[in-house]
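so im writing up the methods section and need the Hemolysin activation/secretion protein record in one place, dumping it here so i stop losing it
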Amino acid sequence: MTVKFKLHIYIVFLFAISNYAFAQELTLKLTSKDSLENSVLKKIDFKKNHTNKTSIEKEINIFSEKLRAQGYFLNRIDSTQIKDSNYTAYFSLGQITKHATITIPKNNLYQPLIFKNKKTITIPLSKLSNTLLSISNELEKTGKSFSEVKLINIKLKKTTLFADLSIIQSKKRKINKIIIKGYEQFSKSHIRHFLNININTVFNHQKLKNISSSIKSLEFVSEIKPPEILFSKDSTILYLYLKKNSVNNFDGLLNFNPNNTTKKGISLNGHLNLNLNNTLHTGEQFKLLWKANGNDNQDLQVSASVPYIFNSGITTGFKFNIHKQDSTFLSTRFNNYTYYNLNPKTSLGLTFDFDSSNNTLKDTLNNDIANLNSSFIGFLFKYQAMSKDLFFNKKFFFYVNPKIGSRTSSSKNENQLKIDIETSFLWGLNQRSSIYIKNTTGYLNSTKLFKNELYRIGGVNSIRGFNEQSIFTSQFSFFNIEYRYLTLSKSYLYSITDLASLVNIKNKTISLLGIGVGYNYRINSSQINLNVSIGKETNKPFDYNSSKLSVTFINYF
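--- predicted struct ---
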């Protein structure tokens, strides 16, 4: 074996030994020679395993700071012991400081709320950090985000810390400019009234969180990324990164069948549903719904709303409905509402309703139907908090609309009272499961009521398992209960349990039950909702031949 080869083996051996030595893990132990002090040390977590001495020294300093935060300002290391890979540091804690007495100097121009117009306060030391943080937050809420809050002239006397409070206030920051990136046509009225920001709005970090949360509750726009702020010496610029969502949608189905009523020609059945949202970049909504169920019943609904008219906080809209009930009657209803948005979730306003219905029966002796006109004026309150799921469900919704009015018919004039209530809640059980509960209540009071002025309920959007608008009632309350299970990120299975109590046309109180199962899923720009349900009165058996299959196919554009 040559000398050169021996030297090579020796170098490799040394390199392997050195790698082992450097890779060897060091163990840190922090203790005290005093048993009482040691019990305090054991309650504080620290990193025990390290790769080098520098890491150990850094951890010891961090540990010492934790002790100071608990009032042991005089803590120090008495001694250290190193044995093999074990490193032991012995602490001496010193006397604990239990209270802090803080004084505001006379030249301090800011009076924190916690001082309550006093110049000196004494607090437990454990609350000192949170107290200083709360003072910083007070200043931050007023736009002085870069203020400095600290203690000066610190002295320790027995178990009390004495210090002066130093507050150096920064310049108040106001939003001087708003720049939209991505969706530059985003409604300026929404920026001012919905997001509640304008030029000279006081800036603070909570404001950014509120803006982000409010944007997420809008269906027609979404965030590309959270808002950002650019600070310069004399200005504060807010950047919003937005994307316009395709929320206009349409679904429809038309059937041409022989006319079984007249025995001549054909009849047109089916439905058309068109929803336009934010087409003009103002957040406006337009809805058109036409339905014909094949029994010579037809329903046409047109509605529209315009938010923040004339750049004010007022939203106005209308709903117009024409309903033809076979050969029995023809009703029209016009509803106008105007409300003020107190905040992004809460609205308060007035409603005006005008109803007209004509008896189209040849038999004029029918006392259940009459030619009538009615008008109502009402109060509106609405609160809604949106969820953040793909299907844009409401996390919580509450709507109440009490109305008073009068009805004119061929017999006499009568005063009437009407109340509409709707509330819903989506309760998330875990990442996949949730429970959805919705209640809808209607109440119409009058000395005498006619069939053509009653509520019409039943169908896929009210009590499932029953024909559309087949149930006439003056008073009702029903619950829609669903258990939802998320199968994929864009689809979920759901159960159907609908419970209803109502007063029917014969002024008799009955209870209804609807049960079933459904599946809702999205594919690209389409949403499909399938469900099958069956309904009955609670004291009667199910008739499985009357099961209802509902298929809703919505195309977004």
